[in-house]
TrEMBL record:
Transmembrane segments: none annotated. GO terms for molecular function: sequence-specific DNA binding; transposase activity. GO terms for biological process: DNA transposition. This is Transposase. The lineage of its organism: Bacteria, Pseudomonadati, Bacteroidota, Sphingobacteriia, Sphingobacteriales. It comes from Hufsiella arboris.
């Protein structure tokens, strides 16, 4: 929330992998491409034929799972300043629903992908995110560890997540 690098500060990259692996294990969705940034996640997923394949529900459940764990980790490292910021960022509506911290934005940006060219455009965008603008998280985008870039560019499987090649999905 507010672009605070919560995944980095709380060492919570593993939470996104755990959630994406859960989606695969439960036949809800498969990961076609991803980048986990210090403060946000880019995903390209394929929803599977399943009663729970409602994108809004999938994303909200994932955010809820990760938010609880991120807060737990921030408490464990005694990150009181960040916890206070997250507590003070809640809206009146958030508070009325019993929300204790504002970890993620309520909304997300989703675009359906129906063509190879649009997929490639989105994949290139997310894969280059770690080396663009203010980030400079590595010198070569294929070396960013929390990304599917090495899978697509070098054919190297990701150590924490099975990626489905988009060419098999379209």
């Amino acid at each position: 929330y507010n672009w605070i690098p919560l995944f980095h500060i709380s060492d919570s990259y593993s939470l996104a992998y755990k959630w994406l692996n859960f989606l695969k294990e439960k036949d809800i969705a498969e990961t076609l491409g991803f980048v986990i940034m210090p403060n946000h996640v880019h995903l390209i997923i394929e929803l599977l034929s399943h009663e729970e394949s409602n994108l809004n529900k999938i994303i909200s459940n994932g955010k809820r799972f990760m938010a609880y764990e991120i807060i737990k980790r921030l408490k464990a490292i005694n990150s009181t300043e960040i916890l206070s910021k997250l507590r003070n960022s809640r809206s009146v509506n958030d508070i009325s629903k019993g929300q204790l911290h504002k970890v993620f934005e309520a909304s997300f940006d989703a675009k359906p992908i129906f063509s190879d060219s649009f997929y490639q455009q989105k994949l290139d965008y997310i894969h280059h995110n770690p080396v663009s603008g203010k980030w400079n998280l590595c010198t070569d985008f294929v070396n960013y560890p929390h990304s599917s870039a090495a899978f697509y560019e070098l054919g190297i499987p990701h150590e924490h997540l099975q990626i489905k090649d988009f060419r098999e999905a379209l």
